[in-house]
Amino acid sequence: MTVEHRVVFTPSGIVATVPQGSAVLDAARAAGVDIDSVCGGRGLCGRCQVAPSTGQFAKWGLTSTEDALSVPGPTELDYRGRRPLQEGHRLSCQAAVLGDVVIDVPAQSQVHSPVVRKAVDLGEITVDPVVTLHYLEMATAVLGDEISDAERLVSALANDWDIPNVEVPAGALPALSAAMAEGKGAVTAVVHTRRRYPGQSEDGEVVERRVLTVRPGYSDAEFGVAVDVGSTTVAGYLLDLATGEVVATAGRMNPQIRFGEDLMSRVSYAMLNPGGTAELTTAVRTAIDEVIGELCEAAGIYRVDVCDLVVVGNPIMHHLVLGIDPTPLGAAPFTLAVRDGVWADAADIDVDLPGASLYVGPCIAGHVGADAAAAMLAEGPHRSPQPQLLVDVGTNAEIVLGDNQKVWAASSPTGPAFEGAQISCGQRATAGAIEGVRIDPATLEPRFKVIGCDLWSDNPGFEAALGSLEVSGLCGSGIIEVIAEMFLVGIIDHRGVIVGEMAELSPRIIADGRTFSYVLQTQPVPLLVTQNDVRAVQLAKAALRAGIDLLAEHAGIADVADVRLAGAFGAHISPVHAMVLGLVPDGPVEGVKGVGNASGAGAARMLVSGSQRAEVERTAQEVVKIETATEARFQELFVAAMSLPHETAPTPHLEQAVDLPPRSTADSETAGPKRRRTGRQRNQMQEQ
Ligand code: FES
Hints:
The protein is an alpha/beta fold. It contains 18 helices and 28 strands. Strands 13-12-11-14-16-15 form a six-stranded mixed beta sheet, with helices on both faces. A six-stranded mixed beta sheet has the order 27-26-17-18-19-28, with helices on both faces.
């Protein structure tokens, strides 16, 4: 008679009844408990680790003792894999059941394990990558054997791993042949699985399963790269696809900048120069490849260890990465060549990742790209019960507004002012750039904070802390803050005019032709905020605000208490100053926050999870697109948004945080000095 034992798996509480001597891994599989494995139970990968528990368990009516499992044999004792055996853990593929036992399956051994966060916030998602590794030991061919290597592989995957109908494309055959010879029939197959996404006919149905590459012997290196291609920077993240952990990050300037600062100038370059699209494509693909090289070096891995690549970007970057002419995106009707996610191979975009697949995220519309879709996936307005406003501020602001019922999206041509361009003292957010400014309301003297130095300029030891760093200009957040501060202390009025009479109160306000400027610094580089600078920022903010207001009107959403500013700019912006400028609508100040590179976080989500790809594809289709360029109402909203904070919109929440200056009634640009900020404001703002 067969002796049987009960095995209780925690934390699921699933109970299996198995014959004596069964491997714990087999018991788990029979009961539907997912335990990870790459080596197929051969004691190589260490992914199947479990922790047996001892003691009395009244809940299940059993006593679990130390001899309920077989003692570790040579495979476990000699195990030296990449994933070290933790104290008190056993390899479930090697431990045999000899009595009733309670087995804990730690999170890292669960097939769909919760993600480990680092660098980019992946939030609460489950790791279920589309690329998986499978170790196989196959008989080598003998004379008279008519079975090919490909046939052997396909049947081994079906028999050993229950993975039927795998395609072995031509591109994988050379690696298969070499791996079979080198590994003497022992190989690791890298398999890519694409499923239908919810909303399509059969949820989760496998559409395609193919072998990406085959490695000789046993391999468990399973990495992926997520890349966010911005018009200014290319940011890359290397993730371990088994754990969801971010292993390395890297970034560089987008080399396309030499063809034009902003998106439209690059479209013009493609339009006016024969071969221009190819030049732009080569430049961005080279940058992606270099970022991948940097990531691999930082993590100490080889390019062949990378199995999957995800790329997101605005529509023009998206098209250029794919080698598609972007000129149709430069004018109405802004037709996309492809809107859905693109499933391909990394080699298709000339990236040196042999045997890696490629996924280019879906675009929302011809003017709202895969970067916005990725940011949405990361921040989740479509999952939120309350309205959420998500703004990615770049040369083209992408705006998403909505909740779990409906989401609207638009883009607005803010231009490069927020990135430091078109501003006389503007610069990119690099070391030496001023990122924060405060102006004393009594003396009109400024103090500032510089990237690369922890001290404010009025702190003792600031000069020494600066060292060789030169204060060279203002980056986006510095520009926002200096103009908001100038408004709060009365140097500029609500129309954005630098008030000439203020020159009587401070030598920092100087005549500059027919207008006035504010002198932020005289040495080593003179930094002046001119009337033209203020105008450029007003135009950029009015474009952004009008886009937000237009979306709010379409959505019928009057109040938003959850505002998320994405991108490098958003990460450093002061919420109060953004509201003083009227960049975002009035709401609770604490509801406005910078969320960093949300597009990168969204791309990383798509990399480690097939279900996240399903979610982003579905969501991108469901978003309601609003075309700012063709809506007459946009112009009216734009004009009203030129004023600081806004011509007509009330600002009750902002007024609780700061005392706004009274409105000037004078028409001329030489109105008298304005009332200064009060003590309450001063205390609040000086602390920030
Ligand atoms: S399944 Fe790989 S070590 Fe157990």
